[in-house]
Design the sequence.
């Protein structure tokens, strides 16, 4: 059962408005989303959930549940993303954030890093060409104004080119992105990794704002307010790459241990905010302090932000990230000041 997954492409095609459809048959959209990204393994889902999804897609269970082929991870060198919600090559990633949480900075940084790997960056501009996209455009190779232009330009690039394609949620709601993806796949253009953003910040209030996804990056208001960037929530962000068949057990083990620590740390932070750190039980102090250090370590200087932060951007391999996180979890850096872990690369 570990090698099974939902046929996300089929769901995307057959049930465009999955949120409404799921609710209409008594399914929680969040459950469907977690099944699509692999956060909930198919083997642990309820049979009635799978049957209901098959009915919605008007397909058989054999068509809905497929054997999971290896999903290649695009290593970004960004600690939080690579460890907790890896970028799935050729998949669709949704960025969920309100304005001001840094989603466009993260997207610009991803584009900057992907260009170094030979990707061509294509942006479908939303209507009105919003001013906030100005800095992002510096990292874009091809900017287009219509779905037709996007299809034509990507077709011209050909099937042998890795493409990072970005569009706003407005094009998802209209159904244009789905039609574009179908056209591209029919013509053998399958090396396209799609990024969907929400410039209006409405996606935060929706259950499945982009439909089925391979990767979800959920931004966090608290991290952003405390200037802990990238403000991507390691507890709510996820990816189909995290399925057991796709990652080695060492990665999964460290990722799960880190999430357990961060989950408890966030609960303790609420207590500290209300009553002060001195009121924490002695048994919880170690958990709180290690959570602080891990949260600080997951911040990272970006190349695109160098002119503003005056900090040199850094790339950290996923293996180095995992090794460092293990050290924090095991208490090897308990004597380090938390501030010394903010905006570093590796522990060194």
Sequence:
């Amino acid at each position: 059962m570990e090698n099974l997954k939902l046929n996300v492409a089929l769901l995307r095609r057959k049930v465009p408005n999955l949120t409404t459809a799921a609710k209409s048959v008594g399914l929680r959209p969040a459950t469907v989303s977690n099944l699509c990204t692999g956060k909930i393994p198919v083997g642990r889902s309820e049979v009635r959930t799978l049957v209901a999804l098959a009915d919605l897609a008007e397909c058989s269970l054999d068509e809905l549940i497929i054997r999971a082929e290896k999903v290649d991870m695009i290593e970004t060198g960004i600690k939080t993303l690579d460890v907790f919600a890896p970028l799935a090559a050729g998949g669709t990633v949704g960025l969920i954030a309100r304005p001001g949480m840094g989603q466009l900075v993260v997207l610009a940084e991803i584009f900057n890093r992907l260009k170094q790997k030979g990707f061509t960056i294509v942006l479908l501009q939303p209507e009105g060409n919003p001013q906030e996209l100005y800095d992002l455009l510096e990292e874009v190779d091809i900017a287009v104004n219509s779905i037709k232009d996007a299809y034509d330009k990507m077709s011209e690039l050909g099937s042998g080119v890795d493409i990072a394609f970005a569009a706003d949620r407005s094009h998802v709601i209209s159904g244009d992105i789905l039609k574009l993806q179908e056209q591209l796949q029919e013509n053998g253009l399958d090396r396209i990794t799609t990024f969907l953003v929400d410039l209006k910040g409405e996606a935060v209030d929706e259950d499945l704002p982009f439909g089925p996804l391979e990767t979800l990056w959920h931004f966090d208001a608290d991290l952003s307010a405390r200037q802990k960037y990238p403000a991507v929530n390691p507890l709510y962000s996820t990816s189909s790459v995290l399925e057991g068949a796709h990652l080695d057990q060492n990665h999964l083990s460290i990722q799960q241990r880190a999430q357990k620590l961060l989950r408890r740390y966030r609960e303790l932070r609420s207590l500290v905010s209300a009553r002060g750190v001195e009121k924490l039980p002695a048994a919880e102090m170690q958990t709180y302090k290690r959570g602080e250090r891990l949260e600080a370590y997951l911040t990272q200087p970006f190349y695109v932000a160098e002119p503003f932060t005056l900090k040199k951007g850094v790339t950290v391999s996923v293996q180095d990230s995992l090794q460092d996180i293990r050290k924090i979890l095991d208490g090897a850096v308990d004597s380090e000041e938390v501030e010394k872990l903010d905006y570093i690369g590796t522990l060194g």
Notes: The CA atoms of residues 39 and 238 lie 6 Å apart. The chain has a mean pLDDT of 91. The first strand starts at residue 4 and ends at 6. The two ends are 40 Å apart (CA to CA).
